[in-house]
Design goal:
two-stranded antiparallel sheet; globular; 6 strands; alpha+beta; 12 helices; about 325 residues
Amino acid sequence: MRYGWILFLILILGFIFWGDIQPWFESLSEEIKDSNGSILNSVVKEFKNIDEIEYSISGPTVEELYYSGNKSVTYTYRTYGQPHEVTFTVYDGVNDYLSGLSRYISYYQNEPTTEDFLLKNIDNEIQIEAIQPFVDFIEENAETNNEKARMAISLVQNIPYDYNGFYGDDLNSKYAYEVLYTNTGVCGEKSELLIHLLRELGFGVAYLNFDSQSHAAVGIKCSEEYDYLDSGYCFVESTVPSMITDDQGDYIDTGKLTEVEEIIIVSNGLSLTDVKEDYNDAIRLNQIQAMGLFLDMSTYNEWENLIDKYGIIVGE
């Protein structure tokens, strides 16, 4: 009720003094009309200088954000049974950017799939650019497509397994570049790195998900004579040096692989065409290992030659 009387009083005063304030309102209106052109001219002038404005408010460049701090990391790999080393510069900024990304995918209806998370990793544009020097190195130092695939596989297999993360329950699903930066990784992380490299090199590649056994591996397109479970892709272990097609390894807290829940085709590109030797060597190595600890000298020498040929780490 009190506010009603106040409003009524304001209206009465407005009627009484309107004759005094009306000229002021009219004058203000004319000033706005007169200055309208100058206001518009001022706005146009500012937009003509938009380039200067953009430069004054722009942030750091891509190079400043991602390629400032760096360190050198040396990686090992094998070609034709011979060990090699190569040193790359890796960048703090790229690693910090990727490690700071959310590992989750928001959704409203359809729950994200394994493939969604895989592509979230390997399709990151900053990462693709940062890994390109590794792809270029392989392209420049391998003579054939088969050699390119084998060099990429060997580089990733020889990155040390992240035992500290595994046993310390300190795993954060590293991006592929983070594996290169830290020079460590577990099965899923190293598999995603290898998939990234093989895809960029033009190969048909797949992600083999052994979810119930907490393991992941890679498939590379190959002849059906040697493929894994009639998938069209040969089994490739990414965690340690091993023969292509050899899926008979023993895994921590898991033993041998029994069932693959998903085979996710990432790309349908080139095939690896020289798998026969790996395939036969893997069969023979598993035969020898099934004989037990005591071998005759001839068989032991055969086992030792296979271990040395593929750089297999005994006890892993």
